[in-house]
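Key idea: predict the complex, not the pieces.
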Amino acid sequence: MSNTNQESEVVFKNVGKMATFKKTQTVILKDCSFTVEAGKLNVLIGPSGCGKTTVINLIAGYERPDLGRVLINGRPISGPSWERLVVFQETALFPWLTCYDNVMFGPLARGVMSKESAHQETVKLLTKVGLEDFRDKYPSQLSGGMQRRAELARALINQPEVMLMDEPFRGLDAMTRKLMQEYYLKLFEETGATHVFVTSELEEAIILADNLLVMTNKPSKIKKVIEVALPRPRDWSMASSKRYLDIKAEALELLHEEAVKASVASGKLDVDLASGYKKPE
Amino acid sequence: MANAKEETLDFIWHAPTFKTKLVNRNTILSAVSIASLFLSWALLVHFQVYRFSLLPSPAEVLEEGIAWVKTNVFWIDAFATTLRVLVGVLAAYIIAIPLGLMIGWKKVFSDLTFPTLEVLRPIPAPAYLPLAILLLPTREASVAFIPFIDAFFPVLLNTITGVKIIDRDYFRAARCLGSSPKQIFWHVVLPGALPSISSGCAIGMGIGWMGAVVGEMITGKWGLGYRIWESYILIRYPLIVDGMIAIGILGLASSVLIRYLTVRLIPWRRAITESLDESITK
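Result:
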């Protein structure tokens, strides 16, 4: 797989998004503006339930903004497309297809590759993610980590302009998670393209990210964009560098503020404990 | 413990593997269960409990049954009923499966057809018989119409449910990987619903047998249902029970056959049970 991916920039302009849940309407995103930098690994981090998945759905084209605009390379996003592929929280590999057929699915569905070249690409990618011996297994026969890798391969074969990763490593055990992060870093560094990665794990966020986009509570916007600027290729040894620790401290403070606000807003925490923060009227 | 789990899963997804040992705890228990049925029947008749004195004993039934099987009558009866069941039930599959897939998949289709089908559903199949006789060209067709109606709704409802329980993420994934609606139908809707369709087909086959027998009792010149009713009128009571046993065996065989055939179409479910087995035995 070569670096032929066109690098795309996604821009949110004053985006507002409401959601109706049990007949009550909540504002999820309010006046949310930011840029997803092209060719970079952009990590979205924020308190749980702050609308990170909504951002992913807006970029994927599953949802439309109620206010404002979501632009890709200056054009509004009109619907789902293989150019913007999502790797879901839970695996969405087709259980009725083998690992190999799952990866072949995209190119064959779109009819853009001959069967022969799709086969070659598939084998190449499966080898890259370490699944060459498991190509004829069904997803149910694979471990959690293998499933995520197969899913990465299924997305990457389409050479999407934007990869959308919605907490893809959630639910994996700590060791597998670490391995997956290393695999993912390697794939990103080799293949390029614009990546948006959603997570609620700060350490994962920093080690992966070029840009760390910290979100506020609902109604959410981007609180701050931190440029990580650790050298690539990355590995976990950098977790002890000064730069990493500085960023971690800064991000923790930002996230802690939001967590406190969230607790106050939901009445879980007393105002005194919240270091002088006053409950909004 | 591991063995018991394996057996249950076996029963659900690949009923007859023919690889499992012929004599194990399960087969012994099944034999005990059937034997106790025959034993209590024999005792009830022998001691003339209540009106059981009117009923034939197992020995009489066996004797009459052996005589019946040796005649052509039995084979024509069995063939006639099997044919009616197969024609009716296969017709139900052919119509109910595509219809159910469309109803489950497309809201418009569901709104358009489902209310009508819900009104028709509670009407018992024999109630259709007079209309079937009026509408259909041959008497054979009108008898086969009853298993058709009987099998139709279980297959339809199982198919609809099968589509509805497909995870939305599969549709999303297929859509963003560039599938056309036609490809989504063939690669997501159909395979996703197959396990449920498979059970619907087995249930429909079983109910189809009931329908065919009812139809034959009302209108028919051959068939196991007709033979049972005729034996009652001619006071050949042992043959009634022989007819019942024949229906039971043939009905069971056809359900098992359907399961055996349909699990071939869903190898990934077998993969699930196998990996379950592995994790259990480990």
